[in-house]
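Readers of this paper often ask what the protein records in our data store actually look like. Such a record has a labelled line for the sequence and another for the backbone structure tokens. Nothing more is needed to write down the fold, since each code stands for a local backbone conformation. The record that follows is passed on verbatim for readers who wish to inspect the format.
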Amino acid sequence: MGRARKERIGGILLGLALVALPLGCADGNLAAASQDDYVPPQFLDDVMPVYPEWALDQGITARLEVSFVVGFDSLARDFLFVSDKAKPSFDSAVAKSLRASHYLPATRAGIPVEARIRRIYNFEL
């Protein structure tokens, strides 16, 4: 249900952690999510965010946690950000990349359902 990976893109390390829960258990109750017929959403095309140019120039790093919904229509929406510092341009870069990504929606008993995903992005130089 969860996975982690690190990718180096243009000298930038983005650490990603993925946890997916069906909307009925957004409070973290995995018992409701562990039904045999539930399949979490998957990234088909995972677009990485662009490091904000001003932050690169100034040597600024950031850690953001974002949760969002992958709808039964495969679209990302309802972004909720938690970050170590208030930097709207990092939030914007992540939201833009998540909107540009393509997803296979979660399913329950073979029927597409909405699910909330939580990811962590580390913008490091």
Remarks:
- The chain is about 20% helix and 50% strand.
- The radius of gyration is 15 Å.
- Residues 2-120 form a domain with the TolA/TonB C-terminal domain fold (CATH 3.30.2420.10).
- Confidence is low (pLDDT under 50) at residues 1-13, 26-31.
